[in-house]
Design a protein that fits this description.
The protein has 604 residues and is α/β, with parallel strands linked by helices. It has a domain at 79-109 and 169-236 and 341-530: Glucose Oxidase, domain 3 (2-Layer Sandwich), CATH 3.30.560.10. The protein contains 16 helices and 29 strands. The strands form 8 sheets. Strands 1, 2, 3, 12, 13, 16, 17 and 29 form an 8-stranded mixed β-sheet that branches. Strands 8, 21, 22, 23, 24, 27 and 28 form a 7-stranded antiparallel β-sheet that branches. A 3-stranded mixed β-sheet has the order 6-7-9, with no helix packed on it. Helix 9 links the parallel strand 18 and strand 19. The chain is globular. It starts with a helix and ends in a 10-residue tail after the last helix. Residues 1-21 have low confidence and may be disordered.
Length: 604
């Protein structure tokens, strides 16, 4: 009988063999093929669409990915190496415009540039979102099919709870009744941190402010609980290793990598509207440029930065703006590229009296080599660790009064959704400072879960190989800054619990000097960053000003649909890969319904 390591290596070898057989390195091999559906982008949205639509053997599907097919790369597979993927060959290497809310700093904006998209480079947290998130989507789109209740069958089609790599007893760490047999394996973390018990003790010491939540994927996130991550057997799970892996041996699915879609184009008109079933693509700015036409639909799943970029280059956007770049307007749709928003991030650090933190692993080559050997043997050890082991999702007390004082309504989706997020980590975390050469640390990262500021995606030029201009408007108004301030104050309150009395020494760096609201605001603006959760830049809605109809079709067009996080009308109260999978599951059903393919799911 094969052992665990042998079985795992065999399964990965089978996936790799499938990839060699069906993943093309460029477009020349598929130019003479005929496809019903062309999907642009191999991340969470595109992988679901390619996988689900190719389940019907009569539907020919092409998936085009701009990045490489190296989704089993060692640095991608090792959860703890996620940070090494920023500014790597697997990152689009984007940078934002100067962010006014961050004292005009430009920040790195990682996006996945490999099959699997950003699911191949993220920190692997799996969050479904909340009842109130999706019910708000239903209200603003006028489509009850986006409500939590209606989405339930699609939610259950995504994730599958699996045992953590250390096979510890997971009783009390999640609710197994909430999970089904989906295509994305997830698990609670399989490498314990020394602070785990202290975090859980804090929920007992201060239950009113920091309650325990058995399973935040119930639809109600509020409280602290154990993180569920897209990790199986200690290895990263991406859209490529899950949704695409089960589809790569289908004869009706082709995948081409290292190929950038430069625009979509009309091939005719129906009912007075342009029919956008044509795709232009290239591998280099100097060409050559190739074209393909789908017989049924083109689906843009290039993400919240690249989907609006492609649409604008294609002449779908604000006509006055496009004219300034010499781009002919085909569909005047001013909302394309607008309403980009994201979760602002800030790490807050304390020194500790422990010698057992992840800091040593990050500064000691010998320990790192030992961790790598252990991971290669059976997937276990510190390299199996994702971002952290627990989450906290919290609301501002007396929120109505708080936001009235700011002169705005509560921007939150409802009582199951948080205003801010806490991620405790037993080690140093910062996006503005390097790990100190000495010392041991504890950090609580704070995120603004319900941001109100809105930015945009625009063009640097009409050259499709020029990166887009990305403005997520991080902390772009007083409301978002105030939420972050309350989140940092709550982090300070969290560590006042008795559970931390013998562990923390002092606040570290600029954090320690932020003792007034004014100083705290300055500290936040100087050190905040992004959780890398851009959404909303091609949002769906019920009125004619929205870029997408509620069934994700680009307004004013025929044959063109968007299926990725750019379609979200509001950012979910959680990390965005889960909601993207969920949105795509329903989108696949909508497309199949339009194609007359019955898939057995109710709810429209």
């Amino acid at each position: 009988m094969l052992g665990f390591g042998e079985r795992l290596l065999l399964s990965l070898a089978l996936i790799a063999a499938h990839a060699v057989a069906t993943v093309f390195e460029g477009p020349t091999d598929i130019l003479n093929n005929i496809y019903d559906i062309i999907v642009v982008g191999g991340g969470a949205g595109g992988a679901v669409m390619a996988s689900r639509l190719s389940e019907d053997p009569g539907t020919r599907v092409l998936l085009i990915e701009a990045g490489s097919g190296d989704f089993l790369n060692l640095n991608i597979s090792i959860p703890a190496r996620a940070e090494s993927l920023v500014r790597s060959a697997f990152d689009w290497n984007f940078t934002t415009t100067p962010q006014e809310g961050l004292n005009n700093r430009q920040i790195l904006y990682p996006r996945g540039f490999v099959l699997g998209g950003s699911t191949a480079i993220n920190i692997m947290a799996y969050c479904r979102g909340t009842v109130d998130d999706y019910d708000r989507w239903a209200r603003v789109t006028g489509d009850e099919g986006w409500s939590w209740k209606s989405l339930s069958p699609y939610i259950l089609k995504v994730d599958r709870m699996t045992a953590p790599v250390d096979h510890h007893n997971t009783s009390g760490q999640f609710d197994p009744t909430l999970h089904d047999d989906g295509l994305v394996p997830i698990s609670v973390e399989g490498f314990p941190l020394g602070t785990d018990s202290r975090v859980i003790e804090t929920t007992q010491d201060l239950p009113d402010q920091f309650p325990f939540n058995l399973d935040y994927n119930s639809g109600d996130t509020i409280g602290f609980g154990w993180i569920q991550s897209t990790i199986q057997h200690g290895r990263r799970v991406s859209a490529a290793t899950s949704y695409l892996a089960v589809a790569l041996d289908r004869t009706n699915l082709d995948v081409v990598v290292n190929t950038r879609v430069t625009k979509v184009f009309p091939v005719g008109r129906e009912q007075g509207k342009p029919v956008f079933r044509g795709v232009q693509m290239a591998q280099a700015a100097e060409g050559p440029f190739y074209t393909l036409t789908a017989s049924k639909e083109v689906i843009l799943s290039a993400g919240s930065t690249n989907t609006p970029h492609i649409l604008l280059l294609s002449g779908i956007g604000d006509s006055q703006y496009l004219s300034t770049l010499g781009i002919e307007t085909i569909v005047d749709l001013p909302s394309v590229g607008q309403s980009l928003h994201d979760h602002p991030f800030l790490a807050n650090t304390w020194t500790v009296n422990s010698n057992n933190t992840v800091d040593d692993l990050n500064r000691n080559a010998t320990l790192a080599a030992e961790a790598l050997s252990l991971w290669q043997a059976n997937g276990s050890g510190p390299y199996s660790l994702g971002g952290s082991t627990q989450f906290g999702w919290l609301r501002i007390p007396e929120a109505e009064t708080f936001f009235q004082g700011l002169g705005v309504d509560d921007p939150n989706a409802g009582p199951t959704s948080a205003h801010f997020e806490h991620i405790p980590t037993n080690g140093f975390i910062s996006t503005t400072e390097a790990l100190p050469a000495e010392g041991h640390f504890f950090a609580i990262s704070v995120g603004v879960v319900s941001p109100t500021a809105r930015g945009n995606i625009s063009l640097h030029s009409a050259d499709p190989f020029d990166a887009p201009l990305i403005n997520p408007a991080l902390l772009g108004n007083a409301v978002d800054l105030a939420i972050m301030r309350e989140g940092v104050k709550a982090a300070r309150a969290f560590v006042k619990a008795p559970a931390w009395s013998d562990y923390l020494i002092s606040e570290f760096g600029d954090f320690a000097n932020a003792t007034t609201d004014a100083a705290l605001d300055a500290y936040i603006r100087n050190n905040a960053d992004t959780f890398d959760h851009p959404v909303g830049s091609v949002a769906m809605g019920k009125d004619g000003s929205a870029a997408l109809t509620p069934d994700l079709k680009v307004r004013g067009t025929v044959g063109l649909r968007v299926v990725d996080a750019s379609a979200f009308p509001f950012i979910p109260s959680g990390h965005t890969q889960g909601p993207t999978y969920i949105l795509a599951e329903r989108a696949a059903h909508l497309v199949r319904a339009d194609l007359g393919i019955w898939d057995g799911l109710l709810g429209g």
